[in-house]
């Protein structure tokens, strides 16, 4: 041993001072490590800049390892892969507990001289993270020590030792491939240099631990043998992320004293030692200039705690049943279902699915509930032999033939029998039938039937005659090919119904309107081998006519609505960086049994014992293991629950199989999740496809046993359209309730993330786990159990949100009213609801409805039209007629580039009378204006005549009530009755009725939308135009009545409401005025009703659709006040919370009713205080957050580099986030700049936007751009609110914010009025009217002195007893028009200016201003930019007009405006005319003063007229002063 030590010292000496320094550093580290454990909370970072160990090339190290293995081969034990295989990294196994350091190993003398390699060439071991985790979990006992102690220490029980070894090996070697990979030689797994596996962070603060997996030996100085430690001033820093395996250790040698040079003694192994270090102090100036406060969550409000309480039964009435399958229900399951006395099967339909392709095309699958004993079980009804229904429209209407008219008359008068009439009718349509039959035979249709029937048509196709006509009805099986939709013949002009689906025909013809009881007769049950579904029961029906709607009083079974099973799903995923896809690591399911769908459920109902079940499936990460102790946690959880609520799988495929099996056992009717249609189901199906999960398993996600998976589309293509059709087909039979989509329809929130909704709606705080954080949580059993808790909590929150919003009862009511599918209503299909409502109604009236064309068909047709337009084809006219149905869609398509501008005029919006009102204001609103107009004027497809030339339609003259007015009348009456019932109802019945009246209101108000929506099946632009025209006329006539007849002032009006200024301080008197207005307006109409919608005490009216007011409301007879805001910046999402808070404060002050001086002083003081706090870094970081919503995927933005929220979302995606960066998500960001730079740097605003979490992680890199927030966020908001307040100005507000006031000076004049002509039209006197105009400057021909020429009238208006000076006119001005000399030459009698000279100088100056206008200089309106240019940018950004985007974009978001406008030019020329005016000025004078002034003016006119006529001609050439009367006249 002494020899070895001696040789070691020689080798160390030979390596020079650099190696000695590293050895000393290692010894200081050893001394510091032995100092024990302290917990002062530091969170240092360890980084190895000057490595303690030398590195050698990989080839040399591989040779060294091979040699070590050869030397120790006699000791290595490897029982067919189950023993311990030495990696050649530890030596001298004969000495238990003693290991040589790498510097003193026997093989050291044989090493060649090492050459240092760059650190970036190192490749960390693939098993580094797993080994590190295992070593840290095992504590000070290491694997090698366990084997050596088992060999040499015989006092331990052999069985116990073997069990410990087996457990450890099972954890570290889960499969054969893993064991083999652990034997592979890794160049950096030896003791050459500490890698990431050498370091394990024990705390996120100041305490950390170092655990050596390899048998590293550390030399110890004998003087410090008893107390190993570093000096207190030694700093240790850990840099880099440990999980990336590139952490390096840094020990500052200058800060640590050198150890004493003593002899080295026997070395000891340092294992899993925790040490603490003083954190490196951050330098001043490198701290984020905002307060970052950790949110303290109240444990009572923690969502996870709420879920744990519900799971354990705390607070919900006892122990919750957490068994996996519904054992109690399955035990009571009956083998047969209950039937009606006549043998029919009562079936409650919930969902339906149609097979569109393949051999079963046209087969329908109805899913719902049947009663078995006292329970309701799932059932599938297979409906076969569905028939197509196509109508062939004759070229010549049969009813116009005189013979047909006489035949109808004879049948009515019974002169001929109906059979004879039918025979003659068949003969009249024989040509059509023969032609259609030929086409059907060509398509291979073997069986079909045709018959003439009488139907009506009243829609937009001009090639089909409107009214009632005889058509040929064609029926043939759906399994046969469909007739072409554009098929025509010699005897028929069009086909209708060729594209109707089997499901649509079934629902409409069988009159099935949403979830309801059906009577099924002539059915047959299916054997197990013939089943096509996963339902408990399955029956087959050969004819759809065997299914009918059950009457409400037919039996006891159909009187009650069955309950459903609701299952919430949540997935936790991680990102596969190579493929950039989501991989599932855990799936959590929470199930609620017996959920009511006809009434809201209280929390005490659905949380009671026996209602809830849950389970979670989790798998190992690829190539890794579960942390030590996790299996015990799983066992304990399952034992406590009494069943397997936590399942562990080894692979993702096994996880998916287990999940599908458990979902099948639950037999759920409804699947719930937050963004389940946009993420969870998409990931589930894609991963099932990638992992090759058999169809017998993945198809259990729905209720159809499918053999092939449909083609899955890319996720989140279009926001707001729910799940893709492929996903919906995979979950057919189960309803899909996406709380993300539902909350967007029912709530108005800044963000619709689960975290935000849980906080605002459920008052619970949710912990969000990012995908890239998931692997870290697999490092410890505790964190992994937390991950499971978070998954279950998210599923629980989604279910709780569903119950809170009463989604199921509300959507069921909507579906029952409209008659569509419940699943489509849950996906937010408003257009389809109205479509099916009209389909049912028109079918009842025997109308043929228009065909529904897909987007693909429209695009194909439009392309064909464009091609046809360029070809001289003889069939062009026919094609054009056939495409009449596409005309409106084409026009809409043409408008896409112009932000889809409306193709017809909308509602009337009056110009507001801006200002601050302190008397009561009445808001009067028409109830459901557009639906009421439809009823008032009988507007319908069937009543309004549309002309072929596209001219504006007239109001209908028909007295026959149309389908639309009749339908709306029924809905309104139904809602009125429900509201009447609500007055006497209470409890759950009241809630049920309230949901019903809400559904009726939503349906009625959506009726107009289907007429004006170009993609609607019932799109009718003429009807929509007529409705909006009547709306504009009604609003204008109401305004005229209020102002002219009632002598009240209307200050604003918008579409269906007006605001009336009462001028009263007494609310009772103001309300009486409102009643008078209501009475006068309502007596003019039959169906229209206006009502008082609000009373405002004070109001700040800024512009159209932008106002704020103090609204007076009454609750329980007590009035109270609230501030209502409409359209202001402070209610928009793209303003920071800081700007909104200040805007709220200013608004509160303005509407407080205090004096103007006090309000202005308070606002100024608050601005100064806020800007001081911002610059001192005292404002919380959350106040700077700006939010904006993604309307499409981040990668789909063409100008992403100019959109801050898009760049932030793209970075989030790169970092592995799946939620929060998709279509429809609200992206938070903060504008900042890099430390060392300056505010408002040349880098664009978008490039300087960072997510709040990024700023928290990189505090030493970024600073918040305070000037941006002051000038672009706070100042605009406050200046707009204060625009109507006297005593302040934009530059004064800028001064309070510490900004450059010169950049805001031009805002003062703009703030006073947006109309540039207001000063000319409404000014009180000439000085005010021409304020800001430049004076007319004349030059003396003698002395060349320039002087201002005064107005003629101003100079001579005061004569007689009054002196000129009293009017403010200088003596020289007065003398100029007397002598026509310049002031300087007047005394010398020279310098006379002739009239021609005056005219020439006026013309020259006027042309100077005209040239200034035509120079076209543009200036940015941004206060901090002021960019001036003459070039026009054609870039389009947002809603800005072409040519107005600042060239400095994206650094500046301002807009270009003319520096010198046409209004400025006209005003200046008008002022010059005013200077020489000798006519109009006389009319302004009193009669007694006119005579002397007029005499003076007569003398001056010969001198003034040349100049006056010159300037007037120039002014009259300016088009700004002319108005075209044809623009003011409407042709009637």
TrEMBL record:
Q: Which residues form the Zinc finger DNA-directed DNA polymerase family B alpha domain?
A: 1325-1528
Q: Which Pfam families match?
A: DNA_pol_alpha_N, DNA_pol_B, DNA_pol_B_exo1, zf-DNA_Pol
Bias kind Low complexity: ranges: 125-136
Domain named DNA-directed DNA polymerase family B exonuclease is located at 499-755
* Annotated GO CC locations: alpha DNA polymerase:primase complex
Give all residue intervals belonging to the DNA polymerase alpha catalytic subunit N-terminal domain: 26-93
Keyword Ligase set for record: no
- Residue ranges of every copy of the DNA-directed DNA polymerase family B multifunctional domain listed in the record: 821-1285
Molecular functions per Gene Ontology: chromatin binding; DNA replication origin binding; DNA-directed DNA polymerase activity; nucleotide binding; single-stranded DNA binding; zinc ion binding
Q: Which UniProt keywords apply?
A: DNA replication, DNA-binding, DNA-directed DNA polymerase, Metal-binding, Nucleotidyltransferase, Nucleus, Transferase, Zinc, Zinc-finger
- At the top of the EC hierarchy, this enzyme's class is transferase
Q: Under which EC number(s) is this enzyme classified?
A: 2.7.7.7
Q: Which reactions fall under this protein's catalytic activity?
A: DNA(n) + a 2'-deoxyribonucleoside 5'-triphosphate = DNA(n+1) + diphosphate
Record-linked SMART domains: POLBc (SM00486)
Record's subcellular location: Nucleus
Annotated region Disordered: the residues are 1-57, 78-137, 173-198
Could you tell me where the Acidic residues compositional bias lies?
A: 78-92
Q: List the GO biological process terms.
A: lagging strand elongation; leading strand elongation; mitotic DNA replication initiation
* Annotated family: Belongs to the DNA polymerase type-B family.
Q: Explain the purpose of this protein.
A: Polymerase alpha in a complex with DNA primase is a replicative polymerase.
Record-given protein name = DNA polymerase
């Amino acid at each position: 041993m002494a020899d070895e030590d001696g040789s070691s010292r020689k080798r160390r000496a030979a390596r020079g001072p650099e190696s000695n320094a590293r050895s000393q550093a290692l010894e200081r580290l050893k001394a510091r490590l032995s100092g024990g454990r302290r917990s002062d909370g530091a969170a240092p970072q360890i980084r190895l800049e000057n490595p303690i160990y030398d590195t050698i090339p990989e080839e040399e190290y591989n040779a060294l390892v091979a040699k070590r293995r050869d030397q120790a081969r006699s000791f290595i034990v490897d029982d067919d892969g189950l023993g311990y295989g030495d990696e050649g990294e530890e030596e001298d196994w004969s000495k238990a507990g003693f290991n040589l350091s790498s510097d003193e190993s026997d093989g050291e003398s044989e090493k060649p001289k090492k050459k240092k390699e760059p650190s970036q060439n190192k490749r960390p071991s693939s098993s580094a993270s797993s080994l590190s985790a295992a070593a840290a979990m095992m504590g000070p006992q290491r694997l090698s020590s366990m084997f050596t102690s088992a060999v040499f220490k015989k006092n331990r029980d052999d069985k116990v030792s073997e069990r410990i070894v087996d457990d450890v090996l099972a954890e570290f070697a889960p499969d054969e491939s893993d064991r083999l990979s652990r034997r592979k030689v890794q160049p950096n797994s030896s003791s050459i240099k500490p890698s990431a596996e050498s370091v394990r962070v024990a705390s996120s603060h100041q305490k950390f631990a170092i655990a050596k997996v390899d048998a590293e030996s550390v030399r110890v100085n004998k003087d410090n043998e008893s107390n190993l430690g570093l000096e207190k001033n030694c700093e240790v820093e850990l840099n880099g992320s440990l999980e990336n395996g590139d952490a390096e250790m840094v020990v500052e040698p200058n800060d640590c004293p050198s150890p004493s040079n003593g002899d080295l003694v026997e070395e000891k192994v340092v294992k899993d030692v925790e040490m603490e270090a003083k954190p490196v102090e951050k330098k001043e100036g490198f701290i984020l200039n905002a307060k970052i406060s950790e949110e303290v969550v109240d444990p009572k409000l923690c969502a996870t705690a709420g879920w744990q309480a519900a799971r354990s039964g705390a607070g919900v009435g006892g122990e919750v049943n957490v068994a996996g399958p519904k054992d109690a229900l399955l035990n009571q399951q009956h083998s047969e279902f209950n039937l009606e006395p006549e043998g029919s099967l009562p079936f409650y339909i919930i969902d339906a699915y149609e097979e569109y392709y393949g051999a079963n095309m046209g087969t329908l699958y109805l899913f719902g509930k049947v009663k078995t004993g006292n329970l309701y079980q799932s059932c599938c009804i297979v409906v076969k032999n569905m028939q197509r229904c196509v109508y062939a429209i004759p070229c010549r209407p049969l009813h116009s033939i005189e013979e047909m008219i006489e035949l109808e008359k004879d049948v009515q008068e019974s002169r001929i029998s109906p059979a004879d009439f039918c025979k003659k009718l068949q003969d009249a349509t024989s040509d059509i039938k023969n032609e259609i039959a030929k086409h059907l035979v060509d398509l291979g249709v073997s069986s079909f039937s045709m018959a003439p029937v009488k139907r009506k048509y009243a829609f937009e196709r001009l090639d089909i005659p409107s009214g009632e006509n005889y058509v040929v009805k064609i029926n043939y099986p759906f399994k046969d090919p469909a007739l072409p939709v554009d098929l025509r013949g010699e005897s028929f002009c069009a086909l209708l119904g060729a594209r109707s689906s089997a499901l649509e025909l079934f629902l409409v013809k069988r009159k099935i309107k949403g979830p309801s009881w059906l009577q099924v007769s002539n059915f047959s049950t299916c054997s197990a081998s013939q089943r096509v579904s996963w339902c408990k029961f399955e029956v087959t029906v050969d004819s759809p006519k065997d299914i009918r709607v059950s009457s409400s009083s037919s039996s006891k079974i159909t009187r009650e609505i069955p309950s459903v099973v609701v299952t919430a799903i949540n997935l936790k995923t991680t990102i596969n960086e190579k493929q950039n896809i989501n991989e599932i690591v855990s799936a959590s399911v929470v199930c609620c049994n017996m959920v009511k769908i006809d009434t809201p459920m209280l929390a005490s109902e659905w949380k009671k014992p026996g209602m809830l079940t849950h389970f979670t499936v989790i798998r190992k990460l690829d190539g890794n293991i579960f942390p030590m102790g996790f299996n015990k946690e799983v066992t304990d959880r399952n034992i406590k629950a009494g069943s397997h609520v936590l399942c562990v799988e080894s692979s993702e495929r096994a996880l998916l199989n287990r999940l599908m099996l458990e979902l099948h056992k639950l037999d759920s009717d409804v699947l719930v999740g937050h963004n389940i249609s946009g993420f969870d189901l998409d990931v589930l199906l894609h991963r099932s496809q990638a992992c090759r999960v058999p169809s017998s398993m993945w198809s259990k996600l729905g209720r159809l046993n499918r053999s092939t998976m449909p083609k899955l589309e890319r996720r989140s293509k279009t926001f707001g359209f729910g799940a893709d059709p492929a996903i919906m087909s995979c979950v057919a039979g189960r309803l899909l309730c996406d709380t993300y989509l539902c909350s967007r329809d029912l709530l108005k929130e800044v963000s619709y993330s689960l975290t935000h909704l849980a906080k605002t709606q459920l008052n619970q705080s949710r912990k969000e786990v990012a995908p890239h954080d998931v692997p870290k949580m697999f490092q410890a059993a505790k964190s992994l159990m937390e991950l499971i808790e978070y998954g279950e909590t998210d599923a629980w929150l989604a279910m709780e949100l569903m119950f809170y919003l009463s989604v199921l009862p509300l959507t069921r009511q909507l579906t029952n009213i409209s008659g569509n599918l419940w699943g489509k209503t849950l996906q937010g299909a408003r257009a389809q609801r109205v479509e099916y409502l009209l389909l049912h109604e028109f079918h009842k009236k025997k109308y043929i409805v228009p065909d529904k064309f897909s987007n693909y068909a429209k695009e194909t047709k439009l392309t064909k039209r464009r091609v046809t337009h360029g070809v001289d084809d003889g069939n062009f006219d026919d094609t054009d007629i056939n495409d009449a149905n596409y005309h409106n869609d084409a026009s809409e398509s043409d408008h896409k580039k112009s932000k889809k501008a409306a193709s017809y005029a909308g509602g009337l919006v009056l110009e507001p009378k801006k200002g601050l009102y302190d008397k009561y204001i009445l808001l009067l609103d028409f109830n459901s204006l557009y639906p009421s107009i439809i009823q008032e004027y009988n507007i319908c497809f069937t009543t309004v005549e549309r002309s072929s030339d596209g001219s504006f339609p007239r109001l209908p003259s028909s007295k026959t009530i149309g389908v639309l007015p009749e339908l709306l009348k029924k809905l309104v009456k139904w809602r009125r009755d429900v509201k009447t019932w609500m007055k006497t109802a209470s409890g759950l019945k009241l809630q049920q009725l309230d949901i019903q009246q809400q559904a009726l209101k939503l349906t009625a108000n959506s009726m107009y939308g289907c007429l004006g929506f170009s993609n609607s099946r019932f799109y009718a632009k003429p009807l929509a135009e007529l409705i909006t025209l009547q709306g504009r006329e009604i609003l204008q006539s109401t305004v005229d009545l209020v102002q002219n007849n009632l002598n009240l002032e209307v200050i604003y009006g918008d579409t269906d409401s007006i605001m009336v200024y009462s001028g009263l301080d007494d609310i009772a008197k103001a309300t009486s005025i409102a009643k008078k207005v209501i009475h006068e307006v309502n007596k003019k109409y039959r169906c229209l009703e206006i009502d008082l919608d609000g009373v405002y005490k004070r109001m700040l009216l800024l512009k159209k659709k932008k106002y704020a007011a103090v609204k007076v409301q009454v609750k329980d007879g007590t009035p109270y006040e609230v501030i209502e805001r409409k359209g202001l910046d402070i209610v928009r999402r793209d303003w920071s919370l800081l700007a909104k808070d200040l805007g709220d404060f200013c608004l509160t002050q303005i509407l407080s009713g205090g004096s103007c001086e006090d309000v202005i002083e308070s606002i100024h003081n608050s601005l100064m205080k806020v800007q001081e706090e911002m610059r001192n870094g005292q404002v919380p970081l959350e106040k700077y957050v700006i939010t904006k919503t993604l309307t499409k995927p981040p990668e789909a933005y063409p100008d992403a580099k100019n959109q801050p929220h898009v760049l932030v979302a793209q970075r989030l995606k790169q970092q592995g986030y799946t939620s929060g960066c998709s279509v429809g998500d609200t992206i938070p960001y903060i504008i900042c700049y890099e430390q060392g730079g300056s505010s408002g740097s040349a880098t664009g605003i978008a490039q300087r936007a960072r997510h709040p979490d990024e700023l928290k992680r990189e505090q030493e890199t970024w600073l918040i751009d305070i000037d941006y927030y002051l000038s672009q966020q706070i100042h605009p908001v406050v200046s707009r609110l204060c625009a109507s307040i006297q005593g302040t100005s934009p530059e004064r507000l800028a001064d309070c914010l510490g900004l450059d006031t010169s950049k805001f000076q031009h805002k003062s004049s703009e703030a006073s009025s947006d109309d540039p002509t207001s000063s000319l039209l409404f000014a009180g006197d000439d000085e005010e009217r021409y304020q800001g105009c430049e004076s007319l400057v004349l030059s003396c021909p003698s002395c060349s002195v320039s002087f201002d020429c005064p107005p003629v009238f101003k100079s001579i208006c005061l004569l007689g007893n009054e002196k000129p000076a009293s009017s403010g006119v200088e003596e020289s001005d007065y003398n100029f028009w007397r002598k026509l000399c310049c002031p300087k030459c007047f005394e010398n009698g020279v310098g006379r200016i002739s009239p021609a000279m005056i005219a020439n100088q006026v013309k020259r100056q006027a042309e100077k201003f005209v040239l200034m206008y035509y120079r076209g200089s543009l200036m940015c309106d941004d206060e901090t930019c002021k960019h001036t240019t003459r070039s026009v940018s054609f870039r389009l950004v947002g809603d800005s007009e072409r040519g107005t985007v600042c060239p400095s974009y994206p650094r500046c978001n301002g807009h270009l405006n003319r520096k010198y406008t046409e209004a400025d030019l006209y005003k200046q020329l008008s002022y010059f005319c005013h200077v020489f005016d000798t006519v109009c000025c006389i009319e302004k004078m009193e009669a007694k003063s006119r005579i002397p002034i007029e005499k003076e003016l007569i003398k001056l006119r010969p001198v003034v007229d040349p100049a006056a006529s010159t300037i007037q001609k120039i002014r009259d050439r300016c088009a700004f002063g002319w108005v075209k009367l044809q623009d003011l006249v409407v042709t009637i």
